[in-house]
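Researcher: Let's do a round of design. I'm pasting the structure tokens now; please hold your answer until I've finished.
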């Protein structure tokens, strides 16, 4: 592979045949744009359109347009919706104001993370739960079971919903042009209805790249028109279509976790360094509460850490982390040669004793020792 075609942690080389994979409603648009596709979470999705580096730099310097229609959208409605979600998830969703969003998690009874979610409160009795594509069916089933009862209705509208994201410094100007309305008053992790390309959409100021950005939820019938309108609005702003490969390098630079790497059923929010999302102050006896209380009060043997390399060979998920004596003291969960910073970066779990910033360690990259230094997260923070 060339540097512009580096396999990322989101890229899947094996799995179901293309005939068995789901296709985004925008698939034909991506084909026309010359996208290269990959199998991901049961879908065939654009991994890149041109070069990974060009797409990555476009998001950092201007703007990128992403199709995220593989994500799951599950609606929870009714007078008991807030109480039901407080019992199902670790976050305090009853305290969430209408029009705002919250990052939270669905945990197993033992505290393991079944999925990390973004939950929007669209109205007093209406929530939208956005799940990772690979976990959508599990999340829908768990919510159906945990939230069952009078006063709650669960509807999985993933098949009828498309999701398009604009990310980057120019994203606000592009969205304002596309909608014909100002967005400066829309706060981070907030959402509101809007009209785009003649279609009613939910416009959210959220994202997964470390940049300012917006996500647009629209019915599948309006997806192509919304994509085309945003593309036209991006003319002169440097907007380019972007695939999954650069989305992964962007999120890694921003120190954001990926389920299956930094999060998973074998890891609690506390083990992943995200215990802050668990809200013990709420009244609900949520699933996993007792196990998570024990995790909170027990120091973790291994903790999340950022690693900064000095060479050109990037650590990858699964590579062992070693101390100066050659003893294994951790494992890499995600790694890449950072396009923005110009050196290797990785997220890892390492022994607490060697987790301090500045600690010199080694990663075994396919049998070759590569020196790294422990650094704080995130690796990249966008300029104010």
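Researcher: That's everything. Go ahead.
Model: Designed sequence:
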């Amino acid at each position: 592979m060339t540097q512009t075609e580096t396999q990322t942690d989101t890229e899947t080389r094996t799995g179901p045949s293309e005939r068995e994979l789901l296709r985004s409603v925008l698939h034909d648009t991506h084909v026309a744009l010359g996208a290269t596709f990959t199998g991901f979470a049961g879908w065939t999705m654009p991994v890149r359109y041109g070069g990974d580096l060009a797409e990555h730099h476009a998001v950092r310097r201007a703007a990128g347009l992403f199709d995220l229609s593989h994500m799951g959208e599950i609606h929870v409605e009714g007078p008991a919706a807030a109480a039901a979600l407080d019992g199902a998830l670790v976050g305090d969703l009853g305290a969430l104001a209408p029009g705002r969003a919250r990052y939270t998690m669905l945990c197993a009874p033992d505290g393991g993370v079944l999925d990390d979610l973004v939950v929007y409160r669209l109205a007093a009795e209406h929530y939208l739960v956005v799940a990772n594509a690979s976990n959508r069916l599990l999340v829908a089933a768990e919510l159906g079971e945990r939230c069952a009862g009078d006063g709650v209705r669960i509807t999985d509208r993933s098949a009828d919903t498309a999701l398009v994201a604009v990310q980057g410094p120019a994203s606000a100007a592009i969205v304002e042009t596309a909608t014909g309305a100002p967005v400066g008053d829309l706060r981070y992790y907030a959402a509101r209805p809007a009209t785009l390309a003649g279609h009613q959409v939910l416009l959210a100021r959220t994202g997964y790249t470390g940049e300012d950005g917006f996500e647009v939820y629209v019915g599948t019938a309006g997806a192509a028109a919304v994509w085309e309108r945003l593309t036209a609005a991006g003319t002169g702003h440097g907007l380019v279509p972007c695939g999954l490969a650069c989305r992964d390098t962007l999120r890694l630079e921003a120190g954001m976790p990926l389920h299956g790497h930094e999060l998973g059923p074998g890891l609690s929010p506390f083990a992943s360094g995200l215990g802050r999302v668990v809200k013990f102050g709420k009244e609900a006896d949520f699933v996993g509460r007792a196990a998570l209380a024990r995790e909170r009060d027990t120091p973790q043997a291994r903790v999340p850490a950022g690693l900064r390399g000095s060479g050109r060979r990037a650590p990858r998920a699964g590579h062992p982390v070693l101390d100066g004596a050659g003893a294994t003291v951790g494992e890499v969960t995600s790694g890449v040669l950072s396009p923005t910073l110009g050196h290797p970066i990785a997220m890892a779990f390492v022994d607490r004793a060697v987790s301090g910033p500045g600690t010199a360690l080694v990663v075994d990259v396919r049998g070759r020792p590569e020196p790294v230094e422990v650094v704080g997260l995130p690796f990249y923070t966008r300029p104010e």
